[in-house]
Write a structure and sequence with these properties.
Elements lengths: L10 E4 L15 H14 L3 E3 L7 H10 L8 E7 L11 H8 L4 E7 L2 H6 L5 H17 L3 E7 L1 H7 L1 H13 L4 E6 L6 H14 L11 H4 L3 E6 L6 H11 L3 E4 L13 H11 L13 H12 L16 E2 L2 H9 L17 E2 L7 H8 L11 H15 L8 H12 L7 E10 L8 E10 L2 E9 L2 H13 L10 E9 L10 E8 L4 E8 L2 H28 L1
Parallel strand pairs: 1-2, 1-8, 2-3, 3-4, 4-5, 5-6, 6-7, 7-8, 9-10
Antiparallel strand pairs: 11-12, 12-13, 14-15, 15-16
Helix pairs in contact: 1-2, 1-12, 5-7, 6-7, 8-10, 13-14, 14-15, 16-18, 17-18
């Protein structure tokens, strides 16, 4: 742990529902927004920037319903701008909408960069300062906690230092509770961020001790940082700002947002807590961050990036045999923290590059008696290499690999069998949309079931028909859906006769798993991956119920 103040609090504001919703492809319904609030409250962040009530009726409806939520940790704030040029603050509809949201806090953003003042607002510099001061003072008079976002602060500071600091002073003197320095364009580097934070601290008369802003809390004013990731510096800039004195940080849990996204709080919070000793979340909440990050991503209908530090699927994944052997001997040899601290798991990727130590470690999850010298380990290592030579790949298919292990251990009994299936694609001319139809006949415990379904494509149709045929026997499959589908041609030289590898990612809303199928026929490869996906889910559920019974 590098030098810092052990236990010093950092206030976290999540803007998934405002800045995050501005990311491409991100859309939240009112119910989605309420679900995100519940997840973030469970995590224990301090504030949620929940939307702009003056921008659309959906956000106003959300704020109306959010008032009835029983929240334990988090407070909501509405987001909007300073008053418009030429209007009195009490007469500005947008400012009044912030108050009608009836949140404990409001986030008010204003212009810091003189370029924006003169060329975007078309206002005089003095009027912009008055707009900031009057809006902040008005919200304070109405009893709100005011978080002032200094938009484009670092660009403005670089262009006209004196004017940028004058806007900050105006907000602070008007009573802002937090002053947040925004790298709105996302192009600033950490050294410039630290310089800006220290200059603001000095301008506001906040005491500095080394790189620690100990005076901001004592004075009742917190400095904050809001960083974008356009130069891949969002997390680094936020850490630099905290080290320079900021005690309020903003970001989105998964990291999505405008353009290249915002600071990912899922990656930032563990660094601040584990590496630097700050306290960002209530005691015991950090180990929930992986699960709750996946939950928020699921609500947003996006995947958590596999490479997202701390919480991503690849964060503690090891492929090289030497790495796996080192990890098993002493974990810190190839891991910078214990994955359990953030609720994540270590993964040994199964491939010909892996080695017996990695295979044995995976097999132990099913049979703890297996060692790297056990005959089962040797058999699996040989089978793995042979199958990979034929085009199979298990490093990204945890579900299929577990089924392979169970077969080798003799602990696998098929829960159903496809007796026959047929898939037909239609591509009519004219305005009729192309579609596919699938028919499946399954056998479960001596009983046959036949079902059909229509889908957007052949795999979608087959998935629907298969789950429809099985839901009479396994109702829990209603929760399962395909979240990703990938096809890779293995041998391009064989042209249309080439083998294809299909990877299917599935989720039941809580857990995500991947399965694989290989064939010269893309439909048959998809069938194999689908069957593995369903069997993996069913076997896991059976074991979970059995353990609960014991």
């Amino acid at each position: 742990m590098s030098g810092t103040q052990q236990g010093t609090s950092i206030e976290v504001l999540d803007t998934t529902l405002r800045d995050g919703a501005q990311g491409e492809g991100i859309t939240f319904s009112v119910q989605d927004k309420l679900a995100v609030v519940r997840a973030l409250d469970e995590l224990g962040v301090a504030w949620i920037e929940a939307g702009n009530p003056g921008s659309n009726p959906k956000d106003m409806e959300f704020f109306r319903l959010a008032g009835s939520l029983k929240l334990e940790n988090v407070k909501l704030c509405a987001f909007g701008s300073t008053r418009k040029k030429g209007l009195k603050t009490p007469e500005d509809p947008q400012v009044l909408s912030l108050l009608r949201a009836e949140t404990g806090g409001v986030v008010i953003f204003g212009k810091t960069w003189d370029l924006h003042v003169t060329e975007v607002l078309r206002a005089e510099p003095e009027e912009n300062i008055a707009m900031i001061a009057e809006t902040v003072a008005f919200a304070k008079q109405k009893g709100r906690t005011v978080i002032y976002d200094a938009e484009h602060f670092f660009d403005g500071f670089a262009a006209n230092r004196d004017y940028a600091l004058a806007t900050i002073k105006a907000a602070a003197e008007a009573g802002a509770d937090r002053v947040v320095l925004c790298d709105t364009n996302g192009g600033t580097f950490p050294d410039a961020v630290a310089e800006g934070v220290k200059a603001v601290s000095a301008a506001l008369g906040l005491a500095l001790e080394g790189d620690q802003n100990t005076g901001s809390q004592a004075a009742g004013l917190l400095l904050g940082i809001h960083a974008h990731n356009d130069a891949d510096m969002a997390s680094a800039n936020t850490v630099a700002a905290v080290r320079a004195g900021c005690r309020h940080v903003q970001g989105t849990l998964v990291g999505f947002g405008e353009r290249c996204g915002n600071t990912s709080l899922a990656a930032l919070i563990p660094s601040l807590e584990i590496k630097l000793g700050f306290r960002c979340l209530p005691e015991g909440k950090l180990e929930q961050i992986s699960n709750l990050t996946r939950k928020v991503a699921e609500i947003a209908n996006v995947a958590v990036p596999d490479s997202l530090p701390y919480v991503g699927a690849h964060a503690f994944a090891h492929k090289a045999g030497m790495h796996a052997d080192g990890i098993l001997k002493i974990s810190r040899s190839f891991e910078h923290i214990d994955p359990a601290l953030v609720g994540n798991d270590r993964h040994f990727l199964m491939s010909e590059a892996g080695g017996r130590s990695a295979i044995a470690e995976r097999v132990k999850k099913i049979d703890p008696a297996i060692t790297k010298d056990h005959p089962v380990t040797a058999a699996l290592a040989s089978k793995l290499k042979n199958m990979e030579a034929q085009g199979w790949q298990f490093e990204g298919a945890d579900g299929s690999f577990e089924l392979l292990v169970r077969r080798e251990l003799g602990r696998y009994k098929p829960l159903f069998r496809i007796e026959a299936y047929r898939v037909v694609s239609e591509h009519p001319t004219g305005e009729t949309i192309a579609c596919a139809h699938a028919w499946v006949k399954v056998l479960v415990d001596g009983q046959h079931e036949i079902a059909a379904a229509e889908g957007d494509g052949p795999v979608n149709a087959m998935d629907g028909a298969l789950r429809r045929a099985l839901r009479h026997f396994y109702p829990e499959l209603e929760q399962v859906r395909l979240s990703d589908y990938k096809v890779r041609v293995i041998d391009g030289n064989a042209a249309t006769a080439a083998k294809v590898r299909v990877l299917i990612q599935s989720t039941d809303g809580g857990q995500t798993w991947t399965t694989v199928g290989v064939s010269e026929d893309i439909i048959d490869a998809s069938r194999a991956a689908l069957v593995d996906s369903i069997e993996y889910k069913l076997i896991r559920d059976i074991e979970r119920r059995f353990k609960a019974y014991l």
